[in-house]
């Protein structure tokens, strides 16, 4: 009997599990790099989330993000300013956090399709992933805090646009460096 998928060597699975845990830690550390804004801070989390998808692919990238979110819900201080617990599910940042798995999946899927190989398509896909996160966050601000849509866009999306561009460039640069290091003799 043949299958369409080939079995991965055992060390490959352990490497992926270790890398997934490593990216979970990277997301937690990146959350601590924050600029305080109202109602949510600007952090480096999205850089780490999108990088996880780009490096690990859709399944393992999403796994690293879901593990991060589970740790946050469990109360570990992995969110910005060392917070955790139910604030992850109910606070102002909850919508952004809910968008993380979908964004990591999108970037991982795009990588598998070859969309992250060239800078301009990769940049466009990264901006799309940022837009997805911002849409989830802005929608949450409308629903949870009761902001009107215009005000929600003003405080929940607009301040993050320049950061989305910068972090997208950083993801592309980090991917380029990662590929160079992987191919060195």
Molecular structure report:
The protein is mostly helical. The protein contains 7 helices and 2 strands, in the order H-E-E-H-H-H-H-H-H. The chain has a two-stranded antiparallel sheet with strand order 1-2. The longest helix is centred in the N-terminal third of the chain and has 29 residues. The radius of gyration is 17 Å and the shape is globular. The N and C termini lie far apart (38 Å).
List the helices and strands and how they pair.
Elements: H1 10-31, E1 34-35, E2 42-43, H2 45-73, H3 87-90, H4 94-112, H5 119-145, H6 149-156, H7 161-183
Helix pairs in contact: 1-2, 2-4, 2-7, 4-5, 5-6, 5-7
Please give the order of strands in the largest beta sheet.
1-2
Order of helices and strands: HEEHHHHHH
Radius of gyration: 17 Å
Helix content: over 70%
Net shape: globular
| Unreliable spans | none
Distance from first to last alpha carbon: 38 Å
Approximately how much beta-strand content do the residues carry? under 5%
Overall structural class, as computed from helix and strand content, comes to mainly alpha
Number of strands: 2
Please count the helical segments: 7
Largest sheet: 2 strands, antiparallel
- pLDDT average, as an integer? 90
